[in-house]
Fold these 2 entries.
Entry 1:
Amino acid sequence: MPAAVAPADAGAVLHGIGVGRGGAVGPVVTVARPVAAPTDEQPPTDRAAAQESVLAAFGTVADGLLAQSAAATGAAAPVLKATAQMAQDKALRSQTLARIADGEPPVHALDAVIETFEHMFVSAGGYLAERVTDLRSVRDRVAAEILGVPAPGVPVLTEPSVVVALDLAPADTAALDVDQVLAIVTELGGATSHTAIIANQLGIPCVVRARGAADLVEGTTVAVDAAAGTVTLDPAPQVAEAFARRAQVQARLAEDTAPGALVDGTPVALLANVGKAADAERAAGAGGPDGPAVEGSGLFRTEVLFLDRSDAPTRAEQAEVYAQVLRAFGDRKVVVRTLDAGADKPLAFASTAEEENPALGVRGYRLRRTVPELFETQLAALADAQQETGAVPWVMAPMVSTATEAREFASAARGHGLTTVGVMVEVPAAALRAREILAEVDFVSLGTNDLAQYTMATDRLRGELADLIDPWQPAVLDLVAATATAGGEVGKPVGVCGESASDPAMAVVLAGLGITSLSMSPAAVPAVRYALAQHTTEQATAIAVAARAAPDAPAARAAALALLDPTVVEVLALR
Amino acid sequence: MPSRTVAVASRVGLHARPASIFTEAVAGAGIDVTIAHGDGEPVDAGSILLVMSLGVPHGDEVTLAADGPEADRVLDELVTLLATDLDEVP
């Protein structure tokens, strides 16, 4: 990697971590960074005039957010509306004006008031602590307005563009006009940050941790190659042509709808991760007349129904959505994951107040200790959906650590009439005790993102540690292998439903370890199907052995690539 | 000064959507209203940030106060609002 890239150089390359397989060429649109109060900001000479202009800044920001909210759809609309209401707040305005009346410089006055509210929010904990981000974004917008600099956040895109940011908050990503986004590049962030996951689901090429990205100049043409994890400045015309050829190959791969299998016929079911009924309908319908593109869903994330709302959905409301998803897949398999909230996905009505270490706290199945009724209602709703549709869902609980928890969950689920019960293996303890856990349940599914986080003691949201949390880490592969071996011994399915299933090279390794199904964002299925179909069980096993013998993640991936079919590496741009 | 004490009926307490509906109603009333949580200091009930900062959970009592000829009518309306589960309002 070049130590220092002069960003203006044509052909200069920034290196980062790619998310997805696509590539795109287009002009850079930069996302402005929040502006700090100038250290030499002067007390206002005309205090009344300063108050006027600050009041106008609040008004402009509130109006802008309201207009954005009205134009937004989905989760972004209420988030933007709530933020607008903060910008309209009487107390925020009057306290800021009072400080200016006392002679404080405007942005310093604003920061001081925001800080007192932040402090109140943080000490109240729970839901309020989670609103600090909204408060900060109001502050950043008003400060930019006062100082007459561009507002932070994603600008309105007028042509297809490459969005470049230091980092993107999920709220920023949600507000993107996806039709105008060619690619996303961030200097910070990680491959399992929510921004990366959303981009991957939308099929938008994304490169995160791209050093030097924040210095890219607005309007510069760049080529973003998610497969290679590179951003090339002022690329040669051939690059766009190569991307187009790759897209063509991938489109051709997408026409293949054969069930997932290695070339010798060993089946590896290819499944879709879905979060909403609409996702399920789209994924189930893909593939056309020759057959379905996916063999079901290996991960239906039910928490999507629970997030961004102030109260829990009722049993009837849940049953309705679950029935829609089951109906979408017909007689195909659907693995329903019970509520996976807590940590980076807090719920207004279930988050426990102020955890020092939310990733290690009350989340996933552990919520049954604090809000058991949420859990019972969800299982009852799923049983209702089963009754109504005649489909038989698989059900699994996230964040299970012991065989006893697995037994308790299985007994609760079976008590509701659900017959195929499993748990997720995300905690190293569960992988190490997979044999005991599999004695209690019908199947397990590995969540490789969390498994990597807990195995490597690395926060998923800490971009600067992204190399440690890489699912190619041999220690993570060892735990996957232990779980798959335990499943093989008792003849019970062991799936993978983390993002790593969508990496074609990793998919071959997972098949070699004995994984029986892979669930991923539907866009990733064709490349994985193609990669699997070019290798025998023997080859896949040898590739897995080589990866596990490596000292670290890049070496493990390199070892796998060296043994993969060279055509697969070439066609899928894996190197 | 007329005042009313009422228990917050919304299940999530007085934040999120209920706080938003409540402060909009106060703003719509056109007079100054204060709200206090239990024995705490009264704050401006028209400020969503101050109301949220009170962190009033479901079932806790708040005291509303206002002055002027409209005070009793406005307070009665606001009490009715707080005694309703605002999460259920369509």
Entry 2:
Amino acid sequence: MFREHAASMQSRPSSEAEQLIVRLLKRTMPFQVISEGMLQSVAAVSRPFSYRAGEVIYRAGDKADDVYVVVSGAVDHLLSDTPTTVERNRVMHSGDVFGWAAVLGQDKRVRLATATCVETAEVIRINGAALIERLNDDPATAKVVMSRFATMITREFGAPAAAAQIVAPNRTVSDAPAAVPRPRGHATGLALTLYRISRWLRSPKPFLMLLGFALFLGFWYLSVQVWKLPRFREMPGLTTVFHEWFSKNPTYGLSFYTPEYYQDIWVSVRRVGIAFFLATALGVPLGLFLGWSRTFREYVFPVFEMLRPIPVLAWVPLAILMFSGSETPVIFLTFLASFFATALNTMLGVESIDESYTRAADCLGASKMQVFRHVIVPGAMPYIFTGLQISVGVAWFSLVAAEMVSGQFGLGYVINTSYTMVRYPTIGIGMITLGAVGYVTSALVRIVGDSMMQWRVRELALGGR
Amino acid sequence: MLAPTPTASARGARTQGAICIKDVVKVYDPDRAAIMAVDHCTLDIAAGEICMIVGPSGCGKTTLLNAIAGFHSITSGEIYLDGELLCGPDKPMANPGPDRIVVFQNGALFPWKTNLENVAFGVVMQGKMRKKEAYEKARAMMADAGLSGTEHNYPGEVSSGLRRRVEIVRALMNDPKVLLFDEPYRALDSLTKSVMHEALLEIYYKNNVTIFFITHDLEEAIFLGHRLVIMTSRPCRPKQILDVDIPHPRDYSVLTTPRFRELMDQTIEAVHEEARKSFEAGEREG
């Protein structure tokens, strides 16, 4: 780029010079078939330049604006390291065209090669965008010229696939120039996760997150303890809660330093864990069959849809009647809501699978069971994990409801008894802990999902998400 | 209307893959409004021929393809592959199988399998090869098609042009008799398309399978095909069959030959009338 300014630039070509350019273009591969009038139109957007021996015309990675045609002299064209190229190095002489990256789609106009002047060379430069604009006056000709460019690219790369890779429309990797070969090995899930975390830390996002928390806590503190707003006055204040939470000798018996705190967390996590596991183990297969077999669905889905809207709390009496003790009813209630969310999303996942995938599998000779195993299950996977995310959230939700009604220990139980026993700061501790633990479990589900669906993670990463 | 062409002798280099469509009718009957999609369609396609099916949008070309592939039933008529009945009066729906593989309009590589796993899928599922063996062959075939280096990428990570090539290689792994293309290059830009056309011909010259290719793009049709079958607007039936007497192997230079332009004019004339009819009938784009 910067070298171009060093080159001696001549004034705009006169019409005589334009005739010379027209004659030159007639000898080139892409332009030899187009009409005289069109050639003149192209010549009008061409500018002659000359370069001294040794001068670099452009480098790989530069932005590509112009297409070059050699008038005289010799230019060395060195492709950057791509495994698919036949010959990386080529010397261009009069009538040769290079710099075709300038006619590619907007986001692909990046040089893939370095062009160096070998002996003093006269070239003409044609602005790629202007060229395309002129060619568009006559779409039929444009098509032929573009096809010829494509053929030229194909030859340069030996394999048409490589050219297809360059010119294909939906490569949207903005920060990686097209046709730069991807690393061959897999980026493992862990490496990718670490990379994502480090990228996240370098972005402004962590600060925004901290700011969000600061605003929230600030509002809590000010509204309850400083301004004492009407509805907030009775709430446990920020400093009261945190003081109690970090106290070695808590007034109401629950803090970081008391074993009861951890016992409550453990009891709740265990209940959610068992319920979530059962809901997944039963809900995913049920959903898969509901989506897969029409007959099965006719039987089961209406019943399923009738049971699904019944709120967890309405199940409490039945749960207590059905199961003895205080532990099993709580797990059952927690399971119930989770189960419906998982099964429903899994079924939707199966329905979302494009018919052409199952048809393609049929064509390729897969049996019904193989289609299920290789198409239905992996195809529904994104929805299944969306369902599991929802399901784990719902599990916490119903756990607390269940613990409040029947149960001993657990965070929901703590919150409820703290209210009846007038231990208001402990309510705050219970709620914040619940939020944090819930967040962690939801993140775990996401991480497991990402590691099971590398194909999706990579696809989304390419889309810049 | 055209003299027998020299290309005709190049056809049939393969003895398998002749499709015979005999008097096929397909009536859709949603809500008791019988819609005739295919109307007494008769068409013979020689083994090893590239037969391009051209017609207005929504005319029922895909219905015909689906019947051959075994995705849809037919109402009456018969379809044979190498003299064997695929579907007929007693068996309205053909069984899909690896002798007739479809390359889909929007591509149907499994996004959750790597390109290599996709290519090896068919033979592994059919139990024809062990996994290791299949991967070896798949790797060799991909290398042959210029796809080295993309084996361990997922389809979502490579360009759409590349995906189409992988999909074609996936089909060829099974040594099919017929490849059925359902407008596979519709979504590609013209630059990629032209590269894909040459690549497809290259593959065809090596494998010489029968190709049943549905398209809207007349240039594509003439450039690739031995014959063009121009379909009437719905219901669909061959209106005119045009021999493309440009000898294979072809490359992009034929686009500028006068003969190509002539054929193009003939085709446009034939298609235009149908397109207008279908436009007036208010067929939806599709």
